[in-house]
Amino acid sequence: MTRMAQPELHDLAPAYALNALDPEDRWTYERHLDTCERCRAEVALLREGAAELPYATVGPEPSPELRDRILRAAREERPARVVPLRRRWLFPATAAVAAAAAVAAIGLGLWANSLRDQTDQRVVAMSGGAGQLLISGDEASIVTCVEPAPAGKTYEAWVIAGDVPRPAGLFPGGCRTVELTTPVEGGNTVAVTLEDEGGVPAPTGDILMSANV
Amino acid sequence: MSDYAIALAPLIERRRVGERSNEELLEAIAAGDDAALGALYDRFGRVSYGLALRILHDRALAEDAVQEAFLAIWRSADSYRRERSKPATWILTLVHRRAVDLVRREDRRRADPIEAAPEAAGEAVPEEAELRRRRAAVQGALQQLPEEQRQTLELAYYGGYTQSELAERLGVPLGTVKSRMFTGLSRLRELIPQE
Questions:
Q1: Pick the CATH number of A6-57 from 1.10.3470, 3.30.1330, 1.10.10, 3.30.70
Q2: What is the pTM of this model?
Q3: B7 touches chain A (CB under 8 A)
Q4: Could you tell me how far CA B125 lies from the centroid of its own chain?
Q5: What is the chain A residue with the closest CA to B143?
Q6: What is the predicted pLDDT for the residue at A5?
Q7: Given a cut of 60, is residue B127 above it in pLDDT?
Q8: Strand locations in A11-114 (E)
Q9: B153: burial class by Cβ within 10 Å (0-12, 13-18, 19+)?
Q10: What pLDDT is attached to residue B18?
Q11: Are A140 and A126 in contact (CB under 8 A)?
């Protein structure tokens, strides 16, 4: 279903709260939620009703190993530590961040270059013009200015070795430095995609920016 | 308030003295505290698994969905906003979405009605009793809904069917499905006490 009229969009709250939209409608509705305060409030309320439904299914227990498996996988991943940029590089959240991105990229470039003088960091411009990749040994960070991710979405960074992408951290957008949670080595590619909130184990979205290590 | 609300109110969100709240656990998880992730799993792992199994009808797939959801919580706990939703709502929405995505991908959807889960025979630990009472409350509230609302909610939430598929399957206009979902969810929220 494409090009829905606004009144139709407003009725999608219950199905969205139940995760009962097909992917295309879900995507359209999440764009709509960014601009519709009333719909966000309605979804929040309906989700409270939906979140009771799991309790009707309580019964069987998972295998005792599941807890260990989850904690082991979590420790292997480590969360992305997101460090906000120094204030002078921040743009007001309300400004058209996309329009400011070109200016920001110049500012970030200068900032990144000033770092290069101090350390052994290498700086590589990322395709797409909205980010720079800073590499120091096997650690890498993305310095970026992008529009905030829409509701229900997150930016996800990837380290791609050969054709195998590994998750390397999530960030919500805006201007920031994202320290990658996965080490890099020569020949890897670092890329960023837009994914569902919470991140995914393998990329599904288009590559928004990328650079070779 | 319904009878269920009165019976359940004192039991919800009871924590031992000194235990961290769900919000505090999510904050600690955002800071990289894996023990907090373990504690959150101890609170929500069982209900998450019950939900995933109900949707996926397969133990291994259900465990995969729960694992993916908890790793999503680990990665994105810093995007949780307490003014937008309660922790339980945020967590269970993530678990549900993972399970539904998986059941659609695997094409394993089924429409059998919710079966009464077998009573666990083990020791009656307090958590167990609380979960059992809560299960009875939600099942009771579902039974109080008009049949067509209950059926629509169950097929959507536990069956993983989209609203368009439901309109076709039930032979009713899409608008009818939407209004049954809306009324059913609103009513459910009224019938069950909120934390």
A1: 1.10.10
A2: 0.64
A3: no
A4: 21
A5: A56
A6: 59
A7: yes
A8: 82-84
A9: buried
A10: 59
A11: no
